[in-house]
Design a protein that fits this description.
- By secondary structure, this protein is of the alpha/beta class.
- It has 2 domains: 125 residues, 3-Layer(aba) Sandwich (Rossmann fold), CATH 3.40.50; 100 residues, OB fold (Dihydrolipoamide Acetyltransferase, E2P) (Beta Barrel), CATH 2.40.50.1020.
- It is built from 7 helices and 15 strands.
- The strands form 4 sheets. A 5-stranded parallel β-sheet has the order 2-1-3-4-5, with helices on both faces. Strands 10-9-8-12-11 form a 5-stranded antiparallel β-sheet. Strands 13-14-15 form a 3-stranded antiparallel β-sheet, with no helix packed on it.
- A hairpin with a 4-residue loop joins β14 and β15.
- α1 packs across α5.
- The longest helix has 19 residues.
- It starts with a strand and ends in a 6-residue tail after the last helix.
Length: 245
């Protein structure tokens, strides 16, 4: 597992590093940790390294942690982000990005442990996949890679972070594959969207983190938006906001 700490305070970096080392020792796991004191150097590294988890301060010199997080999510939407900062005022903006956690300095080891336990739980959930037949081949598609799905000319089209998979399948047969997962929302005709990839919404559309728009059916608009709001609220409740000793 690759992790990065991005913070312009060397002292804060070393404290977090000591917490991470303790967690690894207690849980008998290995985390390869890189330390960065400025955002630009880190973003250059992101081009060459796939980070599974990033600890990100909000008050950086060149740009805010919010701006850095948006760039991370464009590069790799699967990367999990935990904000570490001195103020809780940015928590609403942070959680709109669906970050994993938000820790307010000074925080104790127990809160870092809770955040990492939550990460381990989310990784376990993301390990799930569906299996589709594409032509003569069967393809396993990780649930966490699916951005949205739609239907065209008797084919289900599964739009993932890396490609589009087409499978000759009716929507009624495909729907039960994703319906058990609470992050998938049936929002328009034969279209399902992964709410983890939604950036915002407008009057008639969801705006995804990759810039695409997914329509919201008018007949069920209130129900759909309420489902999305409940999902976001539950995600925030599970991770906690601005936790501090």
């Amino acid at each position: 597992m690759n992790a990065a700490i991005v913070d312009d305070s060397v002292e804060d970096i070393e404290l977090l590093y000591s917490y991470l080392s303790r967690y690894c020792q207690e849980n008998k796991i290995h985390i390869y940790i890189e330390k960065f004191t400025d955002a630009d150097t880190f973003l250059d590294a992101v081009c060459d390294t796939a980070y599974h988890l990033v600890f990100l301060d909000i008050y950086l010199k060149c740009m805010t942690g919010i701006q850095v997080a948006k760039k991370i999510q464009i590069k790799d939407p699967r990367c999990q982000i935990i904000f570490t900062t001195v103020s809780g005022e940015h928590a609403p903006a942070a959680f709109r990005l669906h970050v994993l956690d938000y820790l307010v300095k000074p925080y104790g080891y127990i809160y870092l442990k809770d955040a990492l336990d939550n990460y381990a739980s989310s990784v376990s959930r993301m390990a799930h996949y569906i299996e589709l037949k594409e032509g003569r081949e069967r393809t396993r598609v990780p649930i966490s890679d699916i951005i949205y799905t739609d239907y065209s000319n008797h084919y289900i089209q599964v739009h993932t972070v890396s490609c589009v998979i087409r499978s000759h399948l009716s929507f009624s047969d495909f729907y039960p594959m994703l319906s058990p997962y609470p992050n998938f929302l049936w929002c328009y005709r034969n279209c399902m969207v992964n709410m983890d990839f939604i950036e915002s919404y407008m009057d008639r559309d969801f705006i995804l983190k990759n810039g695409e728009s997914i329509p919201i059916t008018a007949a069920r608009k209130r129900e759909i938006l309420q489902t999305y709001a409940d999902y976001i609220f539950d995600a925030h409740t599970q991770t906690g906001k601005g936790r501090r000793v």
